[in-house]
Design brief:
It is built from 14 helices and 13 strands. The protein is an alpha/beta fold. Bound molecules: pyridoxal-5'-phosphate.
C-alpha cells in the first residue's frame, strides 16, 4: 500500500465517522455578517468577541505600524527583529494586566509551548485540567515532566494529585475560560491549593482576555486574584482581533522566558501590523470598560432564547455558548441546517471535544445587534426540529 492509499483510507474512515473536516472559505472581513462558501450568513462562532478585527481604529493601528515599521521583522527578537513597537505593546499589556512585565509570542499555541517547556523539566510535575487547550497538552509533552490530568474543574481530584506529588517543582496549568464549554476555571480553589502545596499556576486566558473580569482584564481579575497567579498567557488573536500572544508575570519570569523559551527564541518576531492592531484594540478595550457588561447582556439574551427553544445549553457568563447535541452526525446536521437558514455555527466534534459530546459552539460578538440574535434564534428554532435535536 502506498502512502497515498493509506492517507486516503484514513480520510475515508474519518468521513464514515462523521469526523471529516473541510475548510470553509470566507469572502468577508471577520465580522457579524460573513459570506461563507459563497453564502451570505450571520457569523455565530467567531472568537472575535468584540468585533475588533474589522474595527476602523484597529485596522488604522495596523496600517500605521505597517507604514512606520514595514511588513516583517526579519529576525527573532533576540537577533535582528526587536523593534520599539514590540516593547511598547509589552509595556501596555503588563499595565493592562497589573503585572510587572510582558513578553510577546507569535501565537497562543507558541506561547503555551514556550512557557511550559521553559518552566517545567524532567524532575517536575505538571497538573493539567482534562479540558485544557491542545496547545497546553502539546506543551506538557515538550516538558518531559511527569504530567497528571485532573477531571475538568474537579479541585478534589486536583488536591489528591497534589498530595501524592513527588519532589521537584509542581505547576498547575489551566485555561481561564474553557474554549469549547465557555465555563470558568475554579480559580479561587486552585489558588488555595497552589498555596497549600507550594505549586505554581499557569493560567491560559486566551478566551478571557478583553471579555472577562473588570474591563476585560481576565479570569484572575474576575475572581480578585490579581498578583496570585505566577504566569498568565493571553492571546492577541481573539477578542483583540489581531494575531499573536503574550505572557505576563514578574520581571524575572519574563527575563527567564526571553532566555529559555524556544518558541520565542527560534521564531521571527511578530509582524508590526499585528502589533499595531493589538495596540489599538487594547486602547479601545481600556477606553470602553462597559463593553464587558454589554457583551454579557447580549450573551444572556441568546442563552435564554436557546434554552426556551429546548436546546441543551448550560448556564454561563462568557460569550461562548455550547449547544450540546451528543452525536457527531446530529451536530453536523444541525450545523448544516442552520447554514441553509443563513447562520454559521459549525459543529465541534472529536478530537476537539470528547466522543459523545459533539455540539455547536455558538458565540456572541459585541457587534451583533438584537435583530441578529433574533434571526439566529429563529433559524435555530427551525433547524433544531429538522435535525431532530429539539422536539
Ligand atoms: C485559541 C487558544 C490558544 C491558541 O491561541 P492562538 O493565538 O490561536 O495560537 C491557546 N489556548 C487557548 C485556551 C485557546 O483557546
Amino acid at each position: 500500500m502506498t502512502d497515498q492509499d493509506r492517507l486516503a483510507g484514513e480520510l475515508e474512515h474519518l468521513r464514515e465517522q462523521g469526523l471529516y473536516r473541510r475548510l470553509r472559505v470566507q469572502e468577508t472581513m471577520a465580522g457579524p455578517r460573513a459570506v461563507v462558501d459563497g453564502t451570505p450568513c450571520l457569523m455565530m462562532a467567531s472568537n472575535g468577541y468584540l468585533g475588533l478585527a474589522a474595527h476602523p481604529e484597529v485596522m488604522a493601528g495596523a496600517r500605521e505600524a505597517l507604514s512606520r515599521w514595514g511588513a516583517g521583522t526579519g529576525g527573532s527578537r533576540l537577533t535582528t527583529g526587536d523593534f520599539r513597537v514590540h516593547h511598547e505593546l509589552e509595556e501596555e499589556l503588563a499595565d493592562f494586566k497589573g503585572e510587572e512585565a510582558a513578553i510577546l509570542f507569535g501565537s497562543g499555541y507558541m506561547a503555551n509551548l514556550g512557557v511550559l517547556s521553559a518552566l517545567a523539566g524532567p524532575d517536575d510535575l505538571v497538573v493539567s485540567d482534562g479540558l485544557n487547550h491542545a496547545s497546553i497538552i502539546d506543551g506538557c509533552r515538550l516538558t518531559r515532566a511527569q504530567t497528571a490530568v485532573y477531571r475538568h474543574g474537579d479541585t478534589d481530584h486536583l488536591a489528591g494529585i497534589l498530595r501524592d506529588r513527588r519532589a521537584g517543582r509542581t505547576w498547575i496549568v489551566t485555561d481561564g475560560v474553557f474554549s469549547m464549554d465557555g465555563d470558568l476555571a475554579p480559580l479561587p480553589a486552585i489558588a488555595g491549593l497552589a498555596d497549600e502545596h507550594g505549586a505554581g499556576i499557569i493560567l491560559d486566558d486566551a478566551h478571557a482576555t478583553g471579555v472577562v473580569g473588570p474591563g476585560g482584564a481576565g479570569t484572575a481579575a474576575r475572581f480578585g486574584l490579581q498578583g496570585r497567579i505566577d504566569v498568565q498567557v493571553g492571546t492577541l488573536s481573539k477578542a483583540l482581533g489581531s494575531q499573536g500572544a503574550f505572557v505576563t508575570g514578574s520581571r524575572i519570569l519574563v527575563d527567564y522566558l526571553r532566555n529559555r523559551s524556544r518558541s520565542f527564541i527560534f521564531s521571527t518576531a511578530p509582524p508590526p501590523a499585528a502589533v499595531g492592531a493589538a495596540r489599538a484594540a487594547l486602547r479601545l478595550i481600556r477606553a470602553n470598560p462597559h463593553w464587558v457588561a454589554e457583551l454579557r447582556e447580549k450573551t444572556d439574551y441568546l442563552r435564554r432564547g436557546l434554552s426556551a427553544l429546548g436546546f441543551s445549553v448550560p448556564a454561563g457568563e462568557t460569550p461562548i455558548i455550547p449547544v450540546l447535541v451528543g452525536d457527531a452526525g446530529a451536530a453536523l446536521r444541525l450545523a448544516e441546517s442552520l447554514l441553509e437558514r443563513g447562520v454559521f455555527a459549525p459543529a465541534i466534534r472529536p478530537p476537539s471535544v470528547p466522543p459523545g459530546e459533539s455540539r455547536l459552539r455558538v458565540t456572541v460578538m459585541l457587534s451583533h445587534g438584537r435583530e441578529d440574535l433574533d434571526l439566529a434564534l429563529d433559524a435555530f428554532s427551525r433547524a433544531g426540529k429538522i435535525a431532530g435535536v429539539t422536539g
